[in-house]
Amino acid sequence: MAAIEVANLVKTYGATRAVDGISFEVKDGEVFGMLGPNGAGKSTTTEMIEGLRTPDTGTIAVLGIDVVKNPDPVKQRIGIQLQTTALYQKLTVRELLKLFASFYAKALPIDELVALVNLEEKADTISKNLSGGQKQRLAVALALVNDPEIVFLDEPTTGLDPQARRSMWDVVTNLQKRGKTVFMTTHYMEEAERLCDRVAVVDHGKMIALGPPQTLIRENFHETALEFSTNEHLPMDQLQTLPFVESIQAENGITTLYSNGVSRTTNALMALAEERNTELKGFAIRMATLEDVFLKLTGRRIRD
Predict the structure, then answer these.
(1) Domains annotated on the chain, with CATH
(2) SS3 of 204, please?
(3) What's the whole-model pTM score?
């Protein structure tokens, strides 16, 4: 049995079709990512799965239970971390966990929860004195109070510095090791590539890609990306004629050439820049990523 099964999900708000016929399933024990820019429909989809919104049409089963018809039993078996969590600022980490534990028939031991999110040294610190990363880890701990079978993480690392983000990655990895199913939304492609067994890419309410990150990259790109700041002295028609260039994307001040012969393309690009008496600023060579997949499929970057 799949942990989550979604079929033909539709949600409209007036003339806006926020979710337009989305179907997928999440396997038991996997980390599943839903990716898309703001307004793509991922938050609405997630909230319907959690039982917080009612779909117009379609079916949702979580742990074999129909969420639309019977949401209460589901809520006892899942944990939810929202993008922003309102905390009682004068309660300590330990006190907040005890408070949330009192809402459930069963709960994990407080010390175990604190250890799960690496907050042992802050257990007796009031929440208003926690850093942004520590507050995010506390929010995850609050979602784990009832020892849920499925954990929903909504943009868990938004606004965090790189060190705090990687600390949160460790938390997600440990959740999977404990046998939890993790459903997460994120804007960060590096995060999705590292953590997720499979990802669903959504845009304008539709699912446009689904699969393991590396599979999606291989299916969409065999080329290497050459990236540099967009330069008006290097016209697109001339860049397109460079040897082994398969396609070009220019967006937000960045030009990306996708090449099947990176050495030949690089040499020709450098020669063209010298001929046009211009500098290639921020020049970099990299392998294709999920960001490239999204850009290819939608024509815009994930964070737009």
Answers:
(1) 4-211 (3.40.50.300), 222-287 (3.30.70.980)
(2) coil
(3) 0.84
